[in-house]
Amino acid sequence: MEGTDGNTNNAYGNLLSHSPTTPQYKFAGQQYVNHGEEDQMEIVGYRRNTTKSSVTWLLIFLTAGFVQLLFFWKPEWKLHMMFSRCTLDVATFVRLHDEYGQTFVSRVEILTEKSVKRSKERTAGEEANELTGAPAYLVPGKQGVFVPVESIKIFECCRARYWWNEGIHGFEKVSGLGDDILIDFFLEQEGLSKDEQTIRRRLFGDNAIVVEVEPVLTILWKEALNPFYIFQAFSVCVWFIDGYVYYAAAIVLISTVSLALTVHETRTQQKALRDRVHDVELVQILRNDGTVETVEGASLVPGDIIIIPPHGCTMVCDAALIAGNCIVNESSLTGESVPVTKTPLNPDNEGEIFKIRAQSRHLLFSGTRVLQTRFYGNELVKAVVIRTGFMTSKGELVRSMMFPAPVDFQFYRHTYMFVGILAAIASCGLVYSVVLRVYRGEAWKSIIIRSLDLITIAVPPALPAALTVGIVFAQRRLKAAKVFCMSPKTINISGTTNLICFDKTGTLTEDGLDFKGIVPAEDGRFEQMLDSAVAVERGPLLLSMTACHSLTLINGELSGDPLDLIMFKATGWTLEEPQTEDTTKFDLLVPTVVKPKKRFPEDQEEHGDVGIVREFPFSSSVQRMSVIVKQLNEPTFQYFCKGAPEKILTLCRPETVPLDFYMKLESFTRKGDRVIALAWKDLGSIRFLKIHKLKREDLEVDLNFLGFLLLENRLKPDTAQVIHGLKRAGLRSVMVTGDNIQTAISVARECGIVGMTEDVQIVTADQSTVSWAWTADMTAEDRKMLSRELARGRPDDKIHLSVAGGSFENIRKFHPEALKKLLLEGAIFARMSPFEKEMLIDCFKDAGYFVAFCGDGANDCGALKSAHTGISLSESEAAAAAPFTYTKGSIRCVPEIIREGRAALVTSFGIFKYIACYSLTQFVSCLLLYWVRTNLADWQFLYIDMFELTMLSITFGRTGAYKRLVRDPPPSSLLAFVPIFSLLMHLVIVITAQVVAFLLVQQQPWFEPRSVTIERWNTTDPEHEYRSYENYTVFCVSSFQYIWLALAFAKGPPYRRVVLTNLFFMATVVFFCFFDLFLTLWPTDFIQSVFQLLPAPDMAFRATLVSIAFVNLACSVLLEFFCIDFLLFKKGGKHAKWIRSSTYLGDVEAAIRNKMDPRWWTNIEHSPSKPLLNIHPPTIVSHEGFLRGTPLSSIPVASSYVSETTGTAPDQSSVSFLLDDDSKITDNGTFVSRHPADDLESHISMLEHGSFDLGASDTASEAEVIPLLDPPPRTPIVVQDRSLLFDSQEVNSDVVNGFDDTVTFARDDDEVTSSLLHRPDV
């Protein structure tokens, strides 16, 4: 309600929250709510201006309510005309403007104690006298404490409520108990009293996700006030006044049916969404006096403590678990049906800040299903409510479905512009009509009606409906292919896609994993890989596989993470849980026991059982999980840990980790294997009670490395074929995954995103530097060629970049030049969080790409919504926010959607051009007939509009999509040269044909002017009002033109199938051709009477009109298919960008390159303080100095060294040679190179001949050679097998003769190393 200004919270201002989550940020005079969040909006305050309001109401009265109709379409206009801007603290209305350009207007209400008393939403049983002496409202303060106030300002926008926070002097979203509260706060909660719950509910509202189903009359009223229907109503009025009764009645009938269908569809969708999200649950809550009460779920507020029943429930709010464990099915949000174990907040994390994202493993989310609870004895499983209603995770999802981001597509923007152009043309015709009729002295009523009639002709009212024809048929074809579209307008946008981002697991690869093997490590060395876990001997390694997991039995079935299931089942062990009620297992000393089958000796069987005493669940932040176990009849406890190898390595004792750890890891990940590291340690004899008090960080130190667990993630059968097809069509594919970068590279090669002979550079970045390294799986020739391309600063299509999420964030924030290159050449984005995926999509969009994203699960939800075309392979509620959903879980739907999108877009283009040409054709006909004081008759309009136009438009879109994707994208711009030229040339042909026929009929000897026919026919009879030879001639020629235009714009390959396959369309064309021939050549008396035709008495002239019509057909088809499609679109567009109406992938990439700094790749102006890029440049190393331990700081860089010496070593006692970019000097003075064998041999050969080819560089030409002074007689061999490094003295004594100091080099290939070591000449 609108209230007074009121300083409501001054007395409590110092107690109110200054939380930075949604403060009122001010920038250059602008203020924002939800700053930094997805729904950030600019906010402006307004208060009523009496003078402006009075003037506006007068305008509304004088315009018979038309100004009020404008306010309905544009509410912000009402604010500007009736209100004045003011500060937010005194505003009675606010205007909010989001990033998509949408504007929302909301009324600011001031709620007081009187508001409470007269509120109709008072909960049942609440009476004013119950709360005597209690504050009217409670608002969030610091650290979760609620502050009493007597009044509060609020407004609502898009189902979100905002309240005035004096602490930040701005509006803040009502969001419950969120971030920046200490964890201790939740653990200390004891429940709310009924009174406090009631007061909090006044601010937070009901805990309900309400999707209102509007009454039929309300929906009808809103739809009827749509500008399209308003224009239809205006046109119908003009036509009725002008005597076009039949035509106007037909339009009224069609519009009524259209409105009824729209209302029915809207109401059906509202009901479906309501039924989908509506939850009615009774919930048990704990009051502050210790009693348990059963209440409706709608009455919950943040701060309530709910009791989770033993056998589960469906969550109706977001809550933080504070006691007991829960096994939860989160498939409704994540799309994954694997149960997840939720643990309570850890009381040991005293002083830690609560973060919703970081604490997700302790949170129960609204809409998820709790399957079971586990607790100690009679202890209750409790959770603190943190968010309710639309503030919950499910509520936010429903909000995104109710208020989706608007579709911003160039084609739709251009349609509005083109309608404006048609309106301008209509204005010119109106001026022509008025001047002509005033000159002839016609009555003003006739002048006004005829002129307005011309506007209704030039601006086609059927255009919005016609544009949906192609989309409707494409949607039906997609539905038949099991692809369901939630946003039909997105179908057109999908046709412009030129970049597709794929998630990996579950999208490109199978959901499940296959056990591949186990690589044991003992005494700091890796042993031979075992293909079967059954072959693993009894010991810590086997126990880590059998016990380090989170599996559980639910209704007698083993359930848990797929990785854990595969690992455990591979061991052949069994899992048992004590025969007691599932919900009380926490009361037992050992709730879960794993035991082997009969495969160990009898003396080991009695020690076989292993109890899992305590579990530390997997956390994505630490990338590992762990357990504490105890073997039967053993006095000690053991700690096992598994997780990402890089993380486990940091927890292990160095002497237990093999020196070739990274080599082995890289060798497996390059093959696409999923690698899990295992570690353990003995905890000794500890009391059981102490076990449950140990902190995780205290346990995860000095672990013993056990080895690697290898799992395979196989490609889906059709993945490689689909990627190859997209590549062949010139569409770029990118992988965006949360998996390891080397695994992602391997899968990218296997599926074809990266070619087997193409190299990938791994990009790393911090805030100051960006660097990369070559992968080591390409030939020497390819490497040399790529090195030269880099040195020349030329991009090459064989270069692909890969980056991990952390480095991507640094590049996005601190290295704009590197970001451009990454967007241009990036093929693999690994270790990407959901937020980073969404940011990547936004970066691609900002760069000019039309992006599709294909993924599954809630972790892809943001990216699915952000992409131009989101394709979900999951049916979860979270993924349902994507425009497209495919139920068969394969990426084969991607080319199908793009093909249908291209077909729909070309259909929309053709329909638009057809409707525009139809309007202009009829406009020309009317202008010609106006010249002789006549017009088309009622039934002539009816036949053209209701029969020819409608039937041709509907069947036009039935042509299916072409069977394959082609490299050339379809047109996407209506205002480009080609579509404009096409329309103008067709208009020239139309005008020429009509004018020639119009003039020709007047030259015939039997021709009678309009003045004569007026005398012959009784003009007071409506049946003869428009009869004339001119009318007959223009109508007959134009009726053929509407058919020819439909044929000309009904494009076939390469985006749609051949038009002949559209049998309905071809049958319609043939039928109307014959009927028009009948009207022109042999009209019966009945037809002449109905259509008011005055046929030419000469059959030869009638045949001439048919000839003109077919010449028109030939010209239209020749123009569209040869001149437009072949010469301009296909040929000219490849050479002249200004001709194109399509967005080519190459154009987007060229635009990015043009914005790049050309010095980026060549490392010009490199400075330590602000480097452009940290390229590893060719390095010239002094051989003798290096062997004597020359420090790294004294080794010169190639660019400066070569330029100073011009190819000559500065010291006669030293020998210099060139190393490739991939080479580097390690911190311990060891030279590491990663060259293939042939490259190594070429190095040796050139050194022995006293020269070395520089290749291309910044300061030396390709032919330039540096002479070597006193080359060494022997060349150190390059090896990288770490096992050989243990015998480095022996290796070096055999190989490096004549040198005093020991030197060790590194080499990739063990086999090559071995062969080189045994060469007699080395």
TrEMBL record:
InterPro entries: ATPase_P-typ_cation-transptr_N, ATPase_P-typ_cyto_dom_N, ATPase_P-typ_P_site, ATPase_P-typ_TM_dom_sf, ATPase_P-typ_transduc_dom_A_sf, ATPase_P-type_domA, HAD-like_sf, HAD_sf. GO terms for cellular component: late endosome membrane. The keyword Translocase applies. Coiled coil: none annotated. Residues 37-165 form the P5B-type ATPase N-terminal domain. It catalyses: ATP + H2O = ADP + phosphate + H(+). Residues 189-239 form the Cation-transporting P-type ATPase N-terminal domain. It is found in: Late endosome membrane; Membrane. Its EC number is 7.2.2.-. Pfam families: Cation_ATPase, Cation_ATPase_N, E1-E2_ATPase, P5-ATPase. SUPFAM superfamilies: Calcium ATPase, transduction domain A, Calcium ATPase, transmembrane domain M, HAD-like, Metal cation-transporting ATPase, ATP-binding domain N. The chain crosses the membrane at residues 55-73, 247-264, 416-435, 447-474, 911-931, 974-1001, 1062-1083, 1103-1129. One of its GO terms (molecular function) is ATP hydrolysis activity. GO terms for biological process: intracellular calcium ion homeostasis. Residues 283-401 form the P-type ATPase A domain. Gene3D superfamilies: Calcium-transporting ATPase, cytoplasmic domain N (3.40.1110.10), Calcium-transporting ATPase, cytoplasmic transduction domain A (2.70.150.10), Calcium-transporting ATPase, transmembrane domain (1.20.1110.10), HAD superfamily/HAD-like (3.40.50.1000). It comes from the Eukaryota. Keywords: ATP-binding, Endosome, Magnesium, Membrane, Metal-binding, Nucleotide-binding, Phosphoprotein, Translocase, Transmembrane, Transmembrane helix. It is a multi-pass membrane protein. Its main location: membrane. Belongs to the cation transport ATPase (P-type) (TC 3.A.3) family. Type V subfamily. This is Cation-transporting ATPase. It comes from Ramazzottius varieornatus. The lineage of its organism: Eukaryota, Metazoa, Ecdysozoa, Tardigrada, Eutardigrada. The gene is RvY_18327-1.
